[in-house]
Amino acid sequence: MWGTLRGPTGLTHRTRFLVDSGATYSLVPHEVWTVIGLESLRRVPFGLADGTEMEREVGECWMELEPEGRGTSPVILGEPGDSALLGVVTLDVMGLVLNPFRRTLHPMRMLV
What is d(CA 27, CA 17) in angstroms, rounded to the nearest whole number? Predict the structure, then answer.
């Protein structure tokens, strides 16, 4: 899935994401977040599927997913070599759900 990311200075970058229903936060690659000027707001511990524990910097990023939605989401500020991932928090913020059988995103039925 393609998305456009915007940093606090207004710089943008078009990025291709892998939708990862097992990831909590989206991950923005190092070469992208440094160019658009994202900054760390906090350091957060994460666990990997193999049980490995690590900590990563987390910031906020304005995202526009084509053509599904737009909004601000917390993102992991990737390290060199990390790939772009779209996690479930971003999908929730955008009002989207993943159909894992068809590998498609759909608007979420919103409840009050």
Answer: 9
pLDDT digits (tens, 9 = 90+) for 65-74: 876 788 999 9
Q: Is pLDDT of 58 > 90?
A: yes
Instruction: Report whether pLDDT(81) > 80.
Output: yes
Q: What is the mean pLDDT of the chain?
A: 93
SS (H, E, C) the chain: CEEEEECCCCCEEEEECEECCCCCCEEECHHHHHHHCCCCCEEEEEECCCCCEEEEEEEEEEEEECCCEEEEEEEEECCCCCCCEECHHHHHHHCEEEECCCCEEEECCCCC
The domain in which residue 69 lies consists of 2-107
- Number of folded domains in the chain? 1
**Residue 112 resides in a domain:** no
